[in-house]
Amino acid sequence: MTDAATPLIRKDAARNRALLLEAAEDLYATVGLSVTLKDVARHAGVGVGTVYRHFPTKDDLLDALFADRLASATDSARKAAADPDGWRGLVRYLEDSMNMQVGNCGLRGLVVCTAPSSPLAVRSREEIAPLVQQMVAKAHQQGTLRPDFEAADVYYIQIALAAIIEATYHTDPYLYRHHLKLFIEGMRAGGHREPLPDSPESL
Amino acid sequence: MTDAATPLIRKDAARNRALLLEAAEDLYATVGLSVTLKDVARHAGVGVGTVYRHFPTKDDLLDALFADRLASATDSARKAAADPDGWRGLVRYLEDSMNMQVGNCGLRGLVVCTAPSSPLAVRSREEIAPLVQQMVAKAHQQGTLRPDFEAADVYYIQIALAAIIEATYHTDPYLYRHHLKLFIEGMRAGGHREPLPDSPESL
DNA sequence: CCCTAAACGGACCAACAATTCCGTTTTTTG
DNA sequence: CAAAAAACGGAATTGTTGGTCCGTTTAGGG
User: PANTHER family per the record (chains A, B) (predicted)?
Assistant: First the structure.
């Protein structure tokens, strides 16, 4: 085997790749998905060509970048799903996942994104969905969650709060927690007096 | 006066302006703020030059377009503020304003927009803010609103729900009403047992 | 009917982001 | 150390969008 003798990539290439990921991590987290690959290159102190040699396309960079974030989101969901108290697990998962998004504009963009988005994000959602499903089912059995709450609602709450974070994190990064509280109160079993009509025509 | 004798603009100009507004209305509502002025021109059956003669910049078109929408939002707020029952007014205002956004992608973009956005949208917000303030104050006096709910929260709820609508209206335009319900339940006075810690560090 | 000014259409320009290409530099290895 | 391979930098290309310019057409008063 030549694997020890000849490293698969040259030393400088490896260094630049690391530099690139670091710079991209930094920029995407603080600025968001709108950063240019030219920006990333400059931030890393290399040329654009180098970026494209390591990551054939912008999405490839993003995938490499968010792979671990998304993995840790799945982790969080797994832990939450393991909680014997469905309600508590659900609340913790919401808290964890939103907390993760406060510090990372790019991640937010990825989550809120309506478009097909990166296959990575899609896969992550597919991994997490059954876990959320479990929490919701458990909470329903335990009678702590309002009966008309569905697993998909968790995802929509995340989208909603991401939008609030987007609008407020400059001023007050944790303001969103107040609205998270509001949502959580709304999720509770036993609250729904005076139901809203299902479609506004009836108003 | 020559106003009756010589119309301020030529007949064809007037017709094209109307055509343009109609086309823009249509496109912005169904596609969103991303439509190109070239698209609008094509849709209206005129050249781009004509668009720019009538509306020097894209924002001018948008302003002309959304002026009446925003006015009707203010109306809705005024009516809601007039309701002697603060809670009911608040709920109605939320319902009205969100219902307005379901059918109009462009409007949604304008509302959610974090950036300075058009001066028109800003003015509209400034007009509506004191009305919302009134509703909230009244509901607080009447003890129907949770004590830590502030007027600004109404705006954030709108942003949050707009994001949900954005993600779901293709599939089910009124799904957002379910989440509106959740928010409304969370707004109620008397719900907040087990408060969330204010910042996640404590978790 | 004809002339003038207003209005028109769309080619053209500038700015910007993604991506490609290629001559030059660096690493590796014999 | 020298040559080949691998990687590099950044100019150039492509595609897109907001916006301008100007030669041509048309409305409408005399």
Answer: HTH-TYPE TRANSCRIPTIONAL REGULATOR BETI, HTH-TYPE TRANSCRIPTIONAL REGULATOR RUTR
Both tokens of residue A199? 């479609």
Q: CB contact, 8 Å: B198 with chain A? A: yes
Query: Cβ atoms within 10 A of the Cβ of A1, count?
Result: 5
Each residue's pLDDT expressed in tens, for chain A with a length of 203 residues = 434 445 678 999 999 999 999 999 999 999 999 999 999 999 999 999 999 999 999 999 999 998 888 899 999 999 999 999 999 999 999 999 999 999 999 999 887 776 666 778 888 899 999 999 999 999 999 999 999 999 999 999 999 999 999 999 999 999 999 999 999 999 999 765 555 555 554 44
Nearest residue, CB atoms, B182 vs list A99, A186, A198 = A186
Same domain, B90 and B185: yes
Distance CA A181, CA B160 (A): 14
Return all residues near B169 (Cβ < 8 A) that are at least 6 apart: B102, B175, B176
Q: Check whether residue A75 and residue A163 sit in a common domain.
A: yes
Q: Which of A74, A66, A79, A56 is nearest to A21 (CA)?
A: A66
Q: Which residues have C-beta within 8 Å of that of residue B50, sequence separation ≥ 6? A: B16, B20, B41
- Label residues B104-119 b or e (16+ Cβ within 10 Å = b): bbbbbbbbbeeeebbe
Nearest to A159 by CA among B99, B161, B172, B182: B161
Residue A202 lies in a domain: no
Q: State which residues form the domain around B178.
A: 66-189
Are residues A13 and A111 located together in one domain of the fold? no
Chain A contacts in chain B segment 85-114 (CB below 8 A): 91-92, 95, 99, 112, 114
Rounded CA-CA distance B113/A112 in Å is 14
